Amino acid sequence: MIEVKGHTGQIQFDGDYVTITRKGFNARLSVGKGEKRIHISQIAGVQWKPAGLLVNGFLQLTIPGGNERRSAFGSQTKSAVHDENSVIFTKKQMPEFEKLRAAIDAAIAAHHTPQAQAQPASSGSVADELAKLGTLRDQGLLSPEEFEQQKARILGG
């Protein structure tokens, strides 16, 4: 679980859900108090503006079909203050937000990458699967190590 506190709210990420929580005075001035929970499958991207010496940065989640705020150059952070999928952070808070951003990016990539384990097994028998693997190994398309890994997977080991 990653939890970071920003200037206009806090974000928690448990690997599956991103939860944006807003409390207190700054929440009333921005989007309002409350909590928003977003599953990683709903997040299309992460917009990032680093904090500088004189300006705050922000992390903004892009949601397909969402109505995120767009702004002209020089006023991105000001617009992000009023976006419900954004949290503003200071220069001091930025390292923790960078870790959060990396974790969310990795989870988005993992969610959209097909997993060999998630694919349904073919309708062939175990012997057929092993024979196919042996053929791939003999053709040089699988290394001996890859063959052994796949064999163990098929045999349930």
Question: How far apart are the first and last residues' alpha carbons, in Å?
Answer: 30 Å
CATH architecture of the largest domain: Roll
**Which oligomeric state applies?**
single chain
The portion of residues assigned to helices is 25-40%
- Contiguous uncertain segments of 5+ residues: none
Count of spatially separate domains? 2
Radius of gyration: 22 Å
Q: CATH class of the largest domain, please?
A: Mainly Beta
Account of the 3D structure:
The chain is α+β, with helices and mostly antiparallel strands. It is built from five helices and seven strands; from the N terminus they run βββαβββαβααα. The protein has helices at residues 24-29, 76-80, 94-112, 126-138, 144-154, and strands at residues 2-5, 10-13, 17-22, 34-39, 45-49, 57-62, 86-89. Strands 1-2-3-4 form a four-stranded antiparallel β-sheet. A three-stranded antiparallel β-sheet has the order 5-6-7. It starts with a strand and ends with a helix.
